Amino acid sequence: MTYKLIALDVDGTLLNDEHQLSEANKEAIAEVTRRGSRIVLCTGRNPKNAIPIMKEMGLTGYVLADNGAVTVAVEDSQVLHQYGMDARGLDPYIAYCRERGIHFDVNTAFDLYVDNVEHLAQEAMYMYEHLELVPATLPSWEEVAEPIVKFTAFAQREVIEQAIKDWGLWDPVFTVTRSGEFFIDIMHPQASKGNALKELAARLDIPREEVLAIGNYFNDISMLTYAGLGIAVDNSPVEVKAAADAVTLSNNENGVRAALLEYALN
């Protein structure tokens, strides 16, 4: 099978635990693109820190950012598609986070807002600096000019697990997704990596059977199950492996390279 569209998750999949892109993965990606496949990053990251990874690999095309809530062209940062949320519906989640001291941020396609930028916790400051993102203080909803595409809560594991349980009992206005060990993402009910990948494949006239996806976490399940071939890296939770068609090496063992060699370059 020739896979014309290959979707890669970034953190925990394409990058190792040091958040580095290995030369081995980079070379395998270069080879599949030479053979005519398109690479798309499908990530929970903001376009601002996803597009540079595409450029580091010498690629153009698209990134499906914010867990599929925003599709952006690499060359000119044009937003091709986005799932905007009803911002007022986020008020109960913001109140919940404030009452419990849970850090949160609110994302448009390119802007990032926090509750109070002057009082960021050290862990949050480190996270944003590491991701090369500069947050601003959240204004009133009327002052946010662009659609809200993602709300993220960040806390210790046990706090996040309790929030997942509590929010699961609320009216399902939004999609609530565990996007990392310490993160919950809340998005438009139709926003997911799988739907974004499906929409892009249709735009490019690529059938589902010719789409390959590689991921590692719960927010990747929708794209792994949409793709003609969904591959989980070995560091994935057991539920993600069960949802995939195949399992490859871990992100620290160049799992993307191993998967591309076995399924796209054989």
Automatic annotation (TrEMBL):
| Gene Ontology MF terms in the entry | magnesium ion binding; phosphatase activity
Record GO cellular component, one term: cytosol
Q: Does the keyword Hydrolase apply?
A: yes
Stored InterPro entries = Cof (IPR000150), HAD-like_sf (IPR036412), HAD-SF_hydro_IIB (IPR006379), HAD_sf (IPR023214)
Q: Which UniProt keywords apply?
A: Hydrolase
Record bears the keyword RNA-binding: no
State the protein's name.
HAD family hydrolase
